[in-house]
Amino acid sequence: MEKCYTESQVKGVSTGTTILAVTFDGGVVIGSDSRASMGGYYVSSKTINKLIQVHDKIFCCMAGSLADAQAVLKVAKFHLSFHSIQMESPPLVMAAASVLKELCYTNKEELQAGFITAGWDRKKGPQVYVVSLGGMLISQPFTIGGSGSTYIYGYVDAKYRPNMSREECLQFATNALALAMGRDNVSGGVAHLVVITETGAEHVVVPGDKLPKFHDE
C-alpha cells in the first residue's frame, strides 16, 4: 500500500533541546533544558519538563518531536508497569531501554524522536542508555543529545571523570546545560535535573537566573 506523507514529514520538522545523563559513584544524573520550540522559530513553552519517570528509579529524557516522544513513553510506561507486575520486582534499566528501542525501531518510518534512559537497578547499579532515531541502543557512562549538544562536546570530553561524587556530577551537568542554553537559540528556560540512586530519585530545578555564566550574555 502506498504511504502518504505530510509536508512536515517530507521536509523534516526543525526541533531543538539539550539533554544529558551522567553516571557517578553510586548513582546517575539526568537533565535537560525546559524550552519547547515550534519549527525552530517560535518558543511554544518555556517550562516543559522533558524528564519523564517511567518507573520508580528509571527516567527518560526526550529529543525531537514532542508528540512522538510522549506517545512512545506512554506505551513504554504501560509495558514496564505490566512487566514489573509479572516479575514481581522493579524492571531493570536495560529492560526500559530495550522497550524504547523496540518501539522506535518498529515505527522508525513514522517517528522523529530519540531518548536517553537513565536509572539505577539492583543488578548493575547506575546506568545510561541512548536510544537514537531509528532504534539503535548504546550503553555509555555519559551522553548528551539534542541541538544544544553540538556546543558542549569539547566541554564534556574535557571535564568528565569516572566515579565523580554526587555534588561534582550535579555541577558538571548544570555547567553543561548552562553552556548549551547560552549558545543554542532553541534551548533555554530552566535546568531540570534528577538524581537517581539506590534510595530513590530527587528532582532538582535550577532557575535560568541561577545558572552559571561563562561568557557575556
Description:
The structure is a single chain. With 217 residues, this protein is of the alpha+beta class. The protein is 30% helix and 31% strand. The protein is built from 5 helices and 12 strands. The chain has helices spanning 7-11, 66-87, 93-106, 153-159, 166-183, and strands at 19-24, 27-32, 36-38, 42-45, 51-55, 58-64, 113-121, 125-131, 137-139, 142-145, 191-197, 200-206. It has a 5-stranded antiparallel sheet with strand order 10-1-2-11-12, with helices on one face. It has a 5-stranded antiparallel sheet with strand order 5-6-7-8-9, with helices on one face. It has a two-stranded antiparallel sheet with strand order 3-4. α2 crosses α3 (93-106). The longest helix has 22 residues, at 66-87. It is globular. The termini are far apart. Residues 1-14 have low confidence and may be disordered.
